[in-house]
Structure to design on (555 residues):
């Protein structure tokens, strides 16, 4: 992750004007030092005002490097503020576990839409990954499209850490909300019998209502050992 | 927060004539005060159809008093989260102002706690001011929290959206302005809302923005609004609906534009009071980019929604209201 942090840092910094660079450097320093979460919350919130929201122009080589360091991480379509927010989260000192968990939780509880996108995008790089299962499951219940996208599309965290029921919920939600199923990380690895059964039921329900069934559904159904 | 419906209501006995908005087709509108939390998706659809491209939802009183801090936190979160998303589904850019309303300022135990969480919210993306704040009954508690929030706005360099009281309005409005000046706010960064014929002159003379709420029975009617613009011109004047959970009209801004057109006001004047001035005033927050009015329509396309939804597969499905078949 050390490597990933410097990679993202270099991408972010080359996109900033000198004023924003100084601001971010100063903020990151105070985020590394603080035990409470005030500096983190202020800088995290203010980020788009300082960085703007442009496409940071991540190269294919950089994307591959990111993926080597954090398997399955896909940063190539992130905006600059999203990238910078994730980087800032990586600067928080995890040594004091309770303090660390509390400051990240506080960000979640007062987050606006784009902040939620950044927070869920950061799940694979946060410390104590096992502690974010509940948050991730809650995110899957969100009805805000871009928030759901951040969890469902090309995010390696769910497949890596979610318990089976939450994982199955994610896949179902992806079908319900018409997401691009092929962009879910770890579909094959996490295929299971229960999911196959849920999907079969769902397919029957749609057919009964005269609605179409996605071909991907049949594939996952088979992977889990079900299907007709 | 808008209207107190306990006052005598005029019984509407006119013929119900459906509004004809054809004359303003193609014009864009900005409603700088509307409580969408209390409105339905049909309202959003109608607003988008009538040309409303962006709006501001001020934080207000929900009708039912809140009893705990978390209710406030969740309400503020919904203004920057869920409601913003809901609006984007219809291609309408949603901004908000965040503040502790005057009514609930009277619950001092709670108000004190709310003041502590406000700084967490006012710097969020798309928060274009502190509001709506000001006086209701003009109690000492209202005075205290109004002042504290003016200080907060000053520190955050945000505009202020002032709710003026229904009762003792003229004095309440004067007092709101006096206090804003006393705290060193620039009147050009303060929008005084719910004006009428009695308050407008002083508000404009002192350099504040004057907003008018077109709200049936209890506030301004739009015929009176036409006369206001005839008399005072368009500088620092804006129109809003303040539509909420009361009998109100989320199309008040485009309807007023249509009436102005019918009564012979120029397109340029109409544009100033139904679009441009509100943007100029609230863009002082640094949070309004007109280019976003266009991009919100694209974000739409990927922002899909659950189940039997508003939006699927990138198109905006419409219900055929003339059909009894629902599929
Ligand atoms: Zn009001
Ligand atoms: Zn209001």
């Amino acid at each position: 992750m050390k490597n990933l942090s410097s990679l993202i840092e270099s991408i972010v910094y080359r996109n900033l004007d000198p004023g924003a660079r100084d601001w971010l450097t100063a903020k990151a320093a105070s985020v590394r030092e603080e035990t409470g979460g005030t500096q983190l919350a202020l800088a995290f919130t203010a980020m788009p005002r300082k960085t703007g929201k442009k496409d940071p122009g991540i190269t294919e080589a950089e994307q591959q490097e990111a993926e080597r360091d954090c398997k399955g991480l896909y940063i190539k379509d992130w905006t600059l503020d999203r990238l910078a927010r994730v980087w800032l989260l990586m600067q928080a000192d995890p040594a004091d576990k309770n303090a660390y968990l509390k400051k990240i939780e506080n960000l979640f509880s007062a987050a606006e839409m784009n902040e939620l996108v950044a927070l869920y995008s950061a799940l694979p790089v946060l410390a104590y990954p096992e502690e974010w299962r509940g948050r991730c499951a809650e995110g899957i219940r969100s009805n805000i499209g871009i928030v759901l996208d951040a969890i469902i599309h090309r995010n390696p965290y769910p497949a890596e850490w979610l318990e089976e029921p939450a994982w199955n919920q994610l896949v179902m939600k992806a079908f319900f909300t018409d997401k691009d199923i092929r962009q879910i990380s770890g579909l094959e690895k996490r295929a299971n019998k229960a999911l196959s059964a849920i999907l079969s039921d769902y397919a029957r329900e749609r057919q009964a209502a005269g609605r179409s069934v996605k071909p991907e559904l049949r594939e996952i159904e088979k992977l889990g050992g079900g299907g007709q | 927060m808008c209207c107190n419906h306990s006052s005598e209501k005029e019984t509407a006995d006119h013929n119900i004539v459906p509004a004809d908005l054809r004359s303003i087709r193609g014009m864009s509108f900005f409603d700088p005060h509307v409580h969408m939390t209390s409105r339905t998706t049909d309202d959003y659809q109608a607003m988008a159809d009538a040309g409303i491209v962006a709006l501001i939802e001020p934080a207000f009183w929900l009708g039912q008093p809140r009893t705990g801090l978390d209710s406030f936190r969740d309400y503020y979160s919904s203004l920057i989260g869920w409601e913003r998303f809901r609006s984007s589904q219809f291609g309408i850019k949603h901004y908000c102002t965040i503040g502790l309303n005057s009514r609930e300022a009277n619950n001092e135990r709670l108000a004190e706690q709310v003041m502590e969480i406000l700084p967490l919210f006012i710097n969020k993306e798309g928060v274009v001011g502190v509001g709506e704040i000001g006086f209701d009954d003009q109690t000492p508690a209202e005075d205290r929290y109004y002042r504290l929030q003016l200080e907060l706005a000053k520190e955050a360099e945000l505009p202020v959206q002032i709710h003026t009281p229904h009762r003792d309005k003229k004095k309440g409005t004067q007092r709101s302005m006096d206090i804003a000046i006393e705290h060193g706010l620039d009147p050009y960064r303060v929008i005084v809302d719910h004006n009428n014929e009695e308050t407008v002159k002083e508000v404009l003379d002192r350099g504040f923005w004057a907003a008018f709420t077109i709200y049936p029975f209890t506030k301004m009617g739009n015929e009176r609004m036409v006369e206001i613009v005839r008399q005072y011109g368009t500088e620092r004047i804006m129109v809003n609906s303040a539509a909420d959970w009361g009998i109100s009209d989320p199309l008040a801004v485009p309807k007023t534009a249509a009436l102005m057109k019918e009564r012979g006001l120029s397109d340029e004047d109409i544009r100033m009071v139904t679009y441009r001035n509100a943007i100029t005033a609230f863009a002082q927050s640094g949070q309004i980019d007109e280019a976003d009015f266009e991009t919100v329509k694209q974000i739409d396309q990927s922002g899909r929604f659950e189940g039997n939804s508003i939006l699927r597969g990138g198109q905006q499905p419409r219900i055929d209201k003339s059909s009894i078949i629902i599929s």
About this structure: The radius of gyration of chain A is 19 Å. Chain A has a mean pLDDT of 94. Residues 128-228 of chain A form one domain. Chain A has two domains: 1-127, 128-228.
